[in-house]
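Dear colleagues,

As part of the handover before I leave the project, I'm documenting each prediction I ran so the next person doesn't have to rerun anything. This entry is a single chain, and its sequence is reproduced below.
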Amino acid sequence: MPMLPDMVLWQTLLGACKTYKNVDMAEMVTRKLVEMGSTSDGNFVLLSNIYAAHERWADVGRIRDVMKSKDVRKTPGFSYIEEKGVIHKFYNADKIYGKLEEIRFKMKEFGYAAETSFVLHDIGDEEKENALYQHSEKLAVAFGLICAEDEARPIQVIKNLRICGDCHVVIKLISKMYNREIIVRDRVRFHRFKDGTCSCRDYW
């Protein structure tokens, strides 16, 4: 590289480690970020996600202990959407049962299977699948489908954290099933979902 990598470049590499499930490099990158003085909860959460994807639950627990010792607290995930001048805010596990069940049923007809590797807890597959359906960005999009009177207007959602892989797959499917354009602004970038694809081309 023609310049020394800064914290943002190291964090980008850590995100790539999650995409490619490279545990060894993720550990090295996290150590480097700690040495550089980073206290971002996102770095620890990403490494924990990578361990969870490999079912290394002891390491997931160790990361939680490290976060406690450094007083690093995980930011709770939430999403919000504006409808008719009113901002509606959703946290994980808020409930919009009817629309979510309709979406869930339709997605299975399209061959969807939940990406349970994105759930960080050592629980059964059914519980993981239920946890995924309660992510805040899914709730906000479902609410947008309920309220939207003008189907030509995009559904716009803002997410305070990085969108998870399963939610990314689900919102692509929703854009196709309901023939709707959906724009999600997460902590990293804008995602424009239309006709079952995303503007990020599945790299974010």
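The radius of gyration is 18 Å. The first strand starts at residue 78 and ends at 83.

All the best with the project,
I.
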